[in-house]
Specification:
388 residues, alpha+beta, Beta-Lactamase, Alpha-Beta Plaits, 2 domains, 8-stranded antiparallel sheet, 4-stranded antiparallel sheet, 13 helices, 21% strand, elongated
Length: 388
């Protein structure tokens, strides 16, 4: 025979409610401490990161903290568009070169209105609304008037604008693929708090990056300076050896630069340096690709890109990752021809230019620099008039 059900007294129910409240408060305290420790660790690690490097670990940490999160993405604003800066558990090929217009992201995908947008209020979408609101994006700059295929795999999404000083410059998406009701108030609150702290961390990282960029930039030409060159050289030499890629370097100085300074003055000399720097940069961008790099390097996001530097005085340097010797000679000819078309006042400009390629035993690039510099001086002296 079963014992009769016990009736709880009013005092016992009050005590139970108080106990539950205390337990809940303690649980929230533990979660808050865990969240704070995580953010402090993130802040410490971000001190040595550029913003681009910070996006992925930041998103991964958000997904690990927000209850119900299984995947997500972080969008960063560039002008009037948002672009993917980090993703977790999505096909990167699908999202490659995908951008969203600012007004579409705010008015359709987010959908809570301007006031909530500018307050950074998080919102939840479930499966029934996701395809409706997740429309209109740009792929390779062209409009696609439908939602991404990955939207069909989602059951629920949290969206949070990331603000700093009243401006939205990022958008955090947190997703679940199995349960439309998984996100509750606790998920929203953690997402909100995380977005606020993420904004501070990303702003600090961006500020540090700006300071570092200024230290690597030549004030006159806007090119990277010798310090920037040395940093890039170490990076590209390591990548070339790791992936078995060629690496070429060009060193140049300006033939006729002294005549510009002596005849037209130093202001004209500065103009000549600026124009040559622009021509080198633009000629490389406009030229046909001469690169040959391994598929592995591309997969790891290390596909090479040419870089122009002001070496010092009237000297410039160009790094050509992935470029074999024959390709480097083609680049040299193209750059010299582009500069040959320049004229400052009545005076023309030309480049003396040396080419070198990285050798197997050159672990730090010093031999590469020496050989390119020596080749440039050989060309320079070979062009001097006899008797000088």
């Amino acid at each position: 025979m079963e014992a009769p059900a016990r009736t709880w007294t009013e005092d016992e129910l009050d005590l139970l409610a108080q106990t539950a409240h205390v337990v809940g408060m303690e649980y929230e305290r533990v979660l808050a401490q865990r969240h704070l420790r995580t953010l402090l660790r993130l802040q410490a690690s971000f001190l040595s990161m550029d913003p681009d490097a910070a996006y992925q670990p930041l998103l991964e940490r958000a997904i690990s903290l927000i209850p119900g999160a299984e995947s997500g993405s972080l969008l960063i604003r560039a002008g009037q568009h948002f672009q993917y800066a980090a993703t977790v558990n999505f096909d990167p090929q699908e999202l490659q070169n995908v951008t969203f217009e600012l007004n579409v992201t705010r008015d359709r995908w987010y959908g809570l209105g301007d006031d909530a947008w500018l307050r950074g209020e998080p919102r939840i979408l479930t499966r029934s609304l996701l395809p409706v609101q997740g429309v209109s994006y740009l792929k390779d700059g062209r409009p696609a008037h439908r939602h991404l295929d990955s939207v069909d795999t989602l059951e629920a999404n949290i969206g949070v604008p990331i603000l700093h000083h009243g401006q939205v410059y990022g958008f955090l998406n947190i997703d679940n693929h199995t349960d439309a009701d998984v996100f509750g108030k606790d998920s929203l609150e953690v997402a909100r708090t995380f977005a606020v702290q993420a904004a501070v961390l990303l702003h600090e990282a961006a500020q540090r990056s700006s300071i570092q960029l200024a230290a690597r930039t030549d004030a006159l030409t806007g090119l990277q300076n010798r310090r920037g060159f040395m940093e890039a050289l170490r990076r590209e030499v390591a990548l070339a050896h790791r992936h078995g890629m060629p690496l070429a370097m060009l060193v140049a100085d300006m033939r006729g630069f002294k005549a510009v300074n002596d005849t037209l003055g130093h202001t004209a000399g500065d103009e000549a340096l600026i124009r040559v720097g622009n021509v080198l940069r633009n000629a490389l961008r406009a030229g046909d690709s001469v690169f040959r790099w391994s598929p592995r390097a591309v997969t790891e996001g290390n596909a090479p890109s040419e870089q122009v530097f002001r070496w010092g005085g009237d000297e410039f340097a160009v790094l050509l990752p992935g470029t074999p010797p024959a390709g480097a000679e083609l680049v040299k000819a193209r750059l010299q021809e582009a500069v040959r078309r320049l004229q400052v006042g009545t005076l023309g400009l030309e480049l003396n230019m040396g080419v070198a390629t990285l050798q197997t035993g050159d672990t730090d690039g010093s031999r590469l620099v020496h050989e390119a510099d020596a080749e440039m001086y050989r060309e320079k002296h070979a062009r001097m008039p006899a008797g000088r």
